[in-house]
Amino acid sequence: MSENNYPIGTQGTPWNDKDKQCWFNQQTIKRSYQSQVVTLINELDNDFEVVKYGALSFDPTRYPLFIIKSKEWSSNKPNILITGGVHGYETSGVHGALHFMKTLGIKYEKEFNLLVAPCISPWGYETINRWNPAAIDPNRSFYSPSPAPESAALINYIKAHNIPLLAHIDLHETTDTDNSEFRPALAARDGKVNSNWNIPDGFYLVADSNKPEPQFQKAIIDTVVKVTQIAPSDENNQLIGVPLEQHGVINYAARNLGLCMGFTDAQYVTTTEVYPDSPTATEELCITAQVAAIKGALDHLLTK
Q1: 111 — alpha (psi -120 to 50), left (phi > 0) or beta?
Q2: pLDDT class of 234 with cuts at 50, 70, 90
Q3: Nearest CA to 40 among 121, 91, 101, 124?
Q4: Bridge partners (DSSP) listed for residue 21
Q5: 17-302 falls under which CATH superfamily?
Q6: pLDDT (tens digit, 9 = 90+) per residue, 164-217?
Q7: Residue 4 pLDDT greater than 90, yes or no
Q8: Cis amide bond preceding 145, omega within 30
Q9: Interior angle at CA 173, CA 169 and CA 175, nearest 5
Q10: Most Cβ neighbours (<10 Å): which of 57, 146, 165, 270?
């Protein structure tokens, strides 16, 4: 553990509205959601149905929200949800979802109805942020009523269309900035002492402790290991402070924590984590690992 020297707020005291506004005022636009994400979504319009399911009230023109959906929808096929960019700064989740649809979407929609929300938090994408403009973590807000508009929009879409899901694959990253920025900010916001975690060097999965489906998780790991390394556990046989359940897999109580992977009744759920700051990683490799994770998950489901 280490003392929190974060430059906003008073140590030991949760942030008030003034502190949150101070944090927001320090955020800057670093990249473009429209040119880097929406453009790629629109390129998929010929092969899939692109649905605008909402927009962020913070700036609705700048931040529309899209789902890419199978055109050949059939009640005889199981429904699969793939999400990325719940944490906007986790780049390969966004582009992994898009690259999967570009390269493999048509193949797999023959067997599945695909729903892909590639960038749930577009403001977070542009500012390279874990939180939304109100200093709320969307990936701790997947419950109703949700305090995060990003989370609420997806929850409402799935509920309004009464879409039963077989599986939900949520694409994430664990980065060095978790320790340098985001965990210190979290401790400051909540008035707690910061405790960093050991950043795993490689790919790993977070399963839902209430429905872990270990063979499903193993199938994903077995596919991803062909393209990148699986994160080894630390000296305590843990990843990010959580005991290892099997090679490359830990469990979280997804619904209790408000995680994206926990908001539906899907039987098969997982959260992917890649490490883009590894000396062995590249942007392309991280995207390839995300695509491999989706492929491994769907190939396993085809055997069921």
Answers
A1: alpha
A2: very high
A3: 101
A4: none
A5: Zn peptidases (3.40.630.10)
A6: 999 999 999 999 999 999 999 999 999 999 988 899 999 999 999 999 999 999
A7: no
A8: yes
A9: 170
A10: 270
In tens, the pLDDT along 89-129 reads 999 999 999 999 999 999 999 999 999 999 999 999 999 99
What are the residue ranges spanned by the domains of the chain?
A: 17-302
Q: Compute and round to an integer the Cα radius of gyration of the chain.
A: 18
- Three state DSSP letters for 92-140: HHHHHHHHHHHHHHHHHCCCCEEEEECCCCHHHHHHCCCCCCCCCCHHH
CA atoms of 90 and 46, how far apart (whole Å): 27
Which tokens sit at 289? 């690992």
What are the pLDDT digits (tens) for 23-42?
Answer: 999 999 999 999 999 999 99
- Ordered strands of the 48-55 beta sheet: 48-55, 64-70, 113-117, 79-84, 167-173, 268-274, 204-208, 249-252, 242-246, 238-239
Question: Mean pLDDT for the chain?
Answer: 96
